[in-house]
Specification:
Blueprint: E1 5-10, H1 16-25, E2 29-35, H2 39-46, E3 53-54, H3 57-62, E4 68-71, H4 75-87, E5 91-94, H5 102-115, E6 119-121, H6 129-139, E7 146-154, H7 174-191, E8 194-202, E9 207-209, E10 219-221, E11 227-234, E12 239-245, E13 256-260, E14 263-267, E15 278-281, E16 288-289, H8 318-337, E17 341-342
Parallel strand pairs: 1-2, 1-4, 2-3, 4-5, 5-6, 7-12
Antiparallel strand pairs: 7-13, 8-11, 8-17, 9-10, 11-12, 13-14, 14-15, 15-16
The structure holds nicotinamide-adenine-dinucleotide.
Length: 362
């Protein structure tokens, strides 16, 4: 067994607890230190974990013990933190989206290329048993030739539960940039990259009201579209219909369905690692649940770091995250112009994940 991968976390807000839990479970990854603009948050995050140091942000980004900087700041800070880590010669693993804009994301990937370091990016939920089992089912031809997919995410908005929801309603946020990465990464994992998009979008309210925490009752401005719909035309010709909304009370639509010439799949929530994959073949009376056949079992956020233990582009990697961001920006451009937009970038489908417990060393 080699040395563990040494990592440091910048940004100790709501999502950091999930990373801390995952890393504590992975013997091949060691958390050296955490940092936040608010040192109190960093201290609170590190407190339950023996040996994890609290550093200031600049110290962590240049700490020679740290190989990978995990960037869990808000989207508007993703590029700045990533670029500083890359300048210090570190690999970076970023929460989604890769950056608030495609232009910033491009700067991150170019800097990483020049420095010879790697970029990984959430979501790694697509490496779990849910999406991976669905991918294998499609690759093995259980639905025949894929023709279409639907992807639906509808909620009333995260300000009901998040104590600091401002970032969800400024550029880099909105339902598409916030939740789209889960759905679009899943669609690309199953059906390949996207060539062209058509879109329409709306914005229902100029302000949102925080529903919990010390700022409860405070109104925050909305400067992004809060209901975004569109069609993604995959390079393969498959048509995926996307609905991403912070303007709906409830939905009973499945998160994702994939339809082929001989069968249809219901795919579980791509914001989770697991969940049932349901198959109905032409002529079947009812759907049947497929046995789990691929993906990391019992996985949590941060499992994508495992690929940094070996060479090459991580599965939850910068190239895929850049294509996802490009698809989302193209969709918004299509919505605002009323025209279809060709997506300039593309990416490889990442290699499938064999069924295994990520805590076991290979
Ligand atoms: N909250 C969730 O459920 C959730 C789920 C999945 C992914 N994410 C993603 O995780 C990221 C963080 O979300 P969150 O909900 O934890 O946000 P948050 O606001 O709760 O936490 C972000 C933290 O980053 C710190 N920060 C901001 N700018 C910084 C900078 N320049 N340097 C150092 N620290 C800085 C803030 O002080 C804060 O503690 C976002 O990209 C979000 O999309 C969040």
């Amino acid at each position: 067994m080699g040395q563990p991968l040494t990592v440091g976390i910048v940004g100790c807000g709501a999502i950091s607890a999930q990373y801390l839990t995952t890393i504590a479970r992975l013997p091949q990854v060691r958390l050296v230190a955490v940092a936040d603009l608010d040192p109190e948050r960093a201290r609170a995050a590190a407190e339950p974990y023996e040996g994890v140091e609290v550093l200031d942000v600049a110290e962590l980004l240049t700490d020679p013990r740290i190989q990978v900087v995990i960037n869990l700041t808000v989207p508007a800070a993703h590029a700045e933190i990533a670029l500083r880590a890359i300048a210090a010669g570190k690999d970076v693993y970023c929460e989604k989206p890769l950056a608030a804009t495609g232009e910033d994301a491009k700067r991150v990937l170019e800097a990483a290329g020049q420095a010879g370091v790697r970029v990984g990016c959430a979501p790694d939920t697509v490496l779990g048993t849910g999406i991976q089992t669905a991918r294998v089912a499609i690759d093995e031809g259980l639905i025949g030739r894929p023709v279409a997919a639907t992807a639906t995410m509808m909620t009333p908005g995260h300000e009901r539960w998040h104590p600091n929801p401002d970032f969800y309603y400024v550029p880099g946020g909105g339902p598409l940039l916030d939740m789209g990465p889960y759905y679009i990464s899943s669609l690309i994992t199953m059906l390949g990259p996207v060539a062209t998009v058509i879109g329409a979008a709306s914005r229902t309210r100029a302000k949102r009201t925080i529903g919990s925490g010390p700022r409860q009752g405070e109104a925050i401005p909305v400067t992004v579209d809060t209901h975004v719909t569109g069609v993604l035309v995959h390079e393969s010709g498959v048509l995926s219909t996307l609905v991403m909304s912070f303007d709906a009370v409830a939905t009973r639509a499945p998160n994702i369905e994939v339809h082929g010439e001989r069968g249809s799949l219901v795919v579980p929530d791509p914001n989770r690692f697991d969940g049932p994959v349901l198959l109905t073949r032409l002529g079947d009376q009812a759907a049947r649940e497929l046995p789990v056949s691929a993906g990391y079992a019992e996985a949590g956020r941060g499992v994508g770091l495992i690929d940094f233990l070996s060479e090459g582009e991580p599965r939850a990697g910068g190239a895929m995250a850049f294509h996802v961001l490009d698809v989302m920006e193209s969709l918004l451009a299509a919505a605002h112009s009323g025209r279809s937009v060709d997506v300039e970038s593309t990416c490889e489908r990442p290699a499938a994940v064999a069924f295994r417990d990520p805590a076991t060393r290979e």
